Amino acid sequence: MNFSNLFKIAYKALLRNKTRAFLTMLGIIIGISSVIAMVSLGQSSSQSINNQISSMGTNLIMVMRASQRQGGVNLGSSNVQTLTAKDVDAIRSQAKYVSAVSPLVNASGQLVNGANNWLGSVQGGNSELISIRKYKIASGINFTELDVRNSAKVCIIGKTVVKNLFPGGENPLGKTIRFNKIPFRVIGILEGKGQNQMGQDMDDVLIVPYTTVQKRILAITYIHMIMASAQSEETAGLATQEIEAVLHAVHKIKPGQANEFDVRTQQEMLEMMNSVTGFLTVLLAAIASISLLVGGIGIMNIMYVTVTERIKEIGLRMSIGAKNRDILMQFLCESIILSLIGGVIGILLGLLMSYAASAGLKWPFIVSVPAVGISFLVCAATGIFFGWYPAKKAASLDSINALRYE
């Protein structure tokens, strides 16, 4: 018997029990669609994170206060006051691979404009902070170094602040808003950037001179962080080494002594996030693939039932010359057809699910070609593996006993 006839016979046999065939395929459909969706969404989230980090600049370098430890307990970094504006000046003058550097001082509080108020955050920096953070000014101007020296009460605001403090469409430029009762004159409006990789709204920001935050809001002399930009992505590593060397000299840190600061690059963050999302993708895909096993067991169960129901048919085929190999291939073909049809439907459903989820989350839609190919091969392997034993049982039946079966 040739393969064409085998598949025709198997296909007609499955059509006689359409509902049962569909329910059998359902386990394969759910398993394949879950795996495809999980892998696709994992890659989409990873690409979304990459795009967002790249939009901040892959040559971005951050110097943060190191955490304090006492008696083996991490006390955090909120009380560490080791970074100052002098560190920024030293980096600017001594690090040749650094193109821009700015202090960063953060504060949060109530923003008020007339009857409108909004709980927002303030980022204090120098005139280079805008370019380092890859912000663009949609209208207005940036503050100057003179504003920094004079601790001027001027600000640049993001789109979220504009929407909440000026809901009527009024032009904010030149207007005065209050932050914790301190008036700030709006001199610039930022272009929208949306959310970052952690879900934080990048447009919910008020950027002011860092000296204004230090003196008028927090009453401190230290800074929270240093943000720098390397000349290029290729020189980010060299710039990081320069910054560490400069700060070691300024803070008089001896070899082997614990650092008072941590230097991080966007590339390190990118690698860390890719590692985390990759692990979660594999984990979720592995969990989803369990349903494939359940679907395979369902195929084996139904094939056993099918063999029992068709024992007389098997005996009749054997009596007119069908060989054991023909019976084996007939039932194996039925199992493979169930798996492959279920696999194709599962792949299409998985792609549809991942597209809908990506659109809802505003992630890029990515089709994992290797995942689709592997899923199709797994479908065929599932049909062969779980259909082999029932088919073998059918092929081993004695033709006379099969004809006498009631």
Descriptive notes:
- By secondary structure, the chain is of the alpha+beta class.
- It folds into two domains: 3-52 and 272-404, no CATH class; 81-259, no CATH class.
- It contains 13 helices and twelve strands.
- A six-stranded mixed barrel has the order 4-5-10-7-9-8, surrounded by four helices.
- A hairpin with a 2-residue loop joins strand 4 (98-113) and strand 5.
- Helix 2 packs antiparallel against helix 9 (266-309) and helix 2 (18-56) runs antiparallel to helix 12 (369-395).
Number of separate structural domains: 2
**Proportion of helical residues:** 55-70%
Number of strands: 12
Would you tell me the overall average pLDDT?
82
Descriptors:
406 residues, alpha+beta, 2 domains, six-stranded mixed β-barrel, 18% strand, elongated
Brief overview:
With 406 residues, the protein is α+β, with helices and mostly antiparallel strands.
